[in-house]
Amino acid sequence: MMEDIAVLQKLIDESSNIVFFGGAGVSTESGIPDFRSVDGLYHQKFKYPPETMLSHSFYVSHKEEFYEFYREKLLLKVVGTADVSKAEPNAAHRFLAELEKAGKLSAVVTQNIDGLHQAAGSKNVYELHGSVLRNYCQNCGKLYSAEDIFNSNGVPKCSCGGDIKPDVVLYEEGLDNDVMSGAVRAISNADMLIIGGTSLVVYPAAGLVDYYRGNKLVLINRDETARDSIANYAFHGKIGEIFSQLHV
What we know:
Radius of gyration: 18 Å
CATH topology of the largest domain: Rossmann fold
Structural class: alpha/beta
């Protein structure tokens, strides 16, 4: 593994326009569960499949059940309680923020909705699937925090009476065009693309990888992915543990 770390360090040292593309595996070391691993949400038993409960149509037709699931499974670790510790940025988030501060990393493109990259200090973050930290009234547009939603009961209501919706891209909803175009632009111009903590099976997000034009495509994931073969370098392990051995 030390030889692999040395290779990765050399690639970073020789790069000046790095882009990081990450998924749920970046935040699992902060205690936030992912979806597709053996112990992820998709392997737990619920009344409805998680994909159904996190869909636009389910949000419209079963709002109370949507929010019950949303509070427990997507907000609990982000907000934290007396019994459940709040998720904090881990070594991966912190290292990427340091790379950006040093002028070596130009953007983070993330599928995560937890805001941990920004909490670690990253500034240029493209949130493909939105953020639980932003919520808005569907009637008047007033903004609300994750704490507001977590501490509400049933369907959260705005002071105007409208329903409050998370600024999260649900299944059946399209990605934001400005976010997508910004991510495409960043990846297209990168001299090094690091992909971490993602199985690369969720589209259209996973398709962004194809916009990279360079020869330093690095894939870091706990398990093998179907796209390991397209990477110039593939590393298997926890991304936080790997990044904690690198320096800016």
